[in-house]
Amino acid sequence: MQFFGGSEISPSPPVPTASGNNAHMMYVFNRNGVCLLYKEWNRPLHTLNPQQDHKLMFGLLFSLKSLTAKMDPVNADKGNLGVPQLPGQGCSFHSFRTNTYKLSFMETPSGIKIILVTHPKTGDLRESLKYIYSLYVEYVVKNPIYSPGSPIKSELFNTALDQYVRSIS
Amino acid sequence: MDTNDSLRVASLWHSMHAISQQLSPVNGCSGIELLEADTFDLHCFQSLPGTKFFVVCEPGTPHMESLLRYIYELYTDYVLKNPFYEIEMPIRCELFDINLTQAVQSDRVALLGR
To answer: Where are the transmembrane segments (chain B) (predicted)?
Structure first.
């Protein structure tokens, strides 16, 4: 799967499919499972405390990735279930939907996982997630004060992210 | 994929389904209905007693939910109403297999022979 398609440094944001405040929450994890960012826009129900919630989310995604790699009808060679997959190795899922929410997921080759939880009728958010990753690169990675593996505290990043997410469906 | 792997995948799916309900931002979540991956889609149907039926198909295949509902009907007719079938055991009912294959084949023909 080709990750960096164009030659532009900052691709322009994809056109929003509908207006409205559709996003519930967003997580960003690094390859070790550290939650770098958690943003909440609309979450009426809190089942667990934040630490447990992050761990559960990371665990769910890890296992789902393992399951999709195993269930893949196309690839002949599959590892055993439960073996950690390298980013980009094997088939990976990009979204799942329940009756109350839709979770869109993207993993970069460096192991950064971006998760966006939205309304179930939301369309394909892969391009939006790529744009969010480019925002992350611009505002967080290129910040000389930021140390990788620590939670993101950049105001500029938060503002730009907030603005962008509110503008997509 | 052999029987052991199928069992592992099924039990993993069952737990993932339950965890996805826990992580819902809103009340009333009934678990994963559709999982979209790069090379396949996975549709899941949960019946009232909690039995889950899932089907793996090409990305973007339509009408999978109605197929799953039909398979559930076949399950109740040929498996549950079979007096020799033990609940929770692997299904080895010939009529169920025949009808299932027929349903999937007719579905495939209907979709391809548009």
So the answer is: none
Test the B interface: residue of A68, A71, A81 with most B CBs within 10 Å: A71
- Considering only residues B85 and A19, tell me which one the structure prediction assigns the higher pLDDT: B85
User: A21-40+47-70+84-165 domain in CATH 3.40.50.150?
Assistant: no
B27: which chain A residues are within 8 Å (Cβ-Cβ)? 44-45, 100
List of chain A residues whose C-beta atoms are within 8 Å of the C-beta of residue B13: 67
Chain B environment of A53 (Cβ under 8 Å): 23
What pLDDT shows up at residue A21?
59
Three-state DSSP string of chain A: CCCCCCCCCCCCCCCCCCCCCCEEEEEEECCCCCEEEEEECCCCCCCCCHHHHHHHHHHHHHHHHHHHHHHCCCCCCCCCCCCCCCCCCCCCEEEEEECCCEEEEEECCCCCEEEEEECCCCCCCHHHHHHHHHHHHHHHHCCCCCCCCCCCCCHHHHHHHHHHHHHCC
